[in-house]
Amino acid sequence: MRKYEALLFDLDGTVADTDQMLVESFHILYDLYRDGKRTPDEEIYYFSGPPIYETLLKEFPHQNQKKMFDEFMRVSLDVYPKTVRAYPHAKETLLNLKKQGYKLGIITSKIHKSTVYCLNLIGLDGIFDSLVCYDDVAHPKPDKESIMKAMEELQVFDLSKVLYIGDNKSDFLTAVNAGVDCALVGWGPRKLDKDLHPKMIIDSFIDLERKL
Questions:
Q1: Which of 71, 106, 157, 175 would be 182's cystine partner, CB 3.0–4.6 Å?
Q2: Active-site residue numbers?
Q3: What mean pLDDT is reported for the chain?
Q4: pLDDT band for position 194 (50/70/90)?
Q5: 103 with 6: CB under 8 angstroms?
Q6: What are the strands, taking DSSP E only, across 54-195?
Q7: What ranges do the domains of the chain cover?
Q8: Partner residues linked to 207 by β-bridges
Q9: What is the pLDDT of residue 49?
Q10: Cβ neighbours of residue 196 under 8 Å, at least 6 residues apart?
């Protein structure tokens, strides 16, 4: 008997490899708005996870924030097609899981428009039954609201039947706050916090399917 009914995924760093997109986009913004003073790439990798509004305020505190958000959207949309891709075996695994009867959802700090664009770009449009994005809730991750909303949309009402898969501490806390199990991925350039104790750590999408 299957333990889970719903599998909820973070997007950036979990389903979509957007690391190079972030690096190239912020390099452009640093050249335009910080006289070329760049944050090291190793730190930019950790911009994946928090809402982009928070990151832009931290990196460009003296700039108009609406302008910086518009600029990030303009710059990143040009960079996306050259840099963003799905992680290996993501599509075939997700389709297999869907055929097995799992309900699939996305929980992300991206805005809805960017989420749809990203999924279309990497060929994963139409696979997920629920998309809960930054602008779809009053209290985004790590608050539990996103997971509660996805569960309602998927008609899954037992917390023990939900697994949330992410790649960082914010994802872990989102699962904890919602009272659902968490899996963290071991790929990507970000180091997992050793103090976190997820239900499982997965090394690939194939590994995820094997461990379910």
A1: 175
A2: 10
A3: 96
A4: confident
A5: yes
A6: 85-86, 103-107, 130-132, 162-166, 181-185
A7: 6-17+85-211, 19-83
A8: none
A9: 84
A10: 169, 172, 184
pLDDT value of position 191? 86
Determine contact, residues 174/143, Cβ cutoff 8 Å: yes
Q: What is the pTM of this model?
A: 0.94
* Strand pairing category for 6-9 and 103-107: parallel
Q: Decide if 119 contacts 141 (C-beta within 8 A).
A: no
Q: What number does CATH give the domain 6-17+85-211? A: 3.40.50.1000
Burial degree of 176 (CB within 10 A; 0-12, 13-18, 19+): middle
Residues 6+ apart with CB under 8 A from 157: 151
Residue 24's pLDDT band (cuts 50, 70, 90): very high
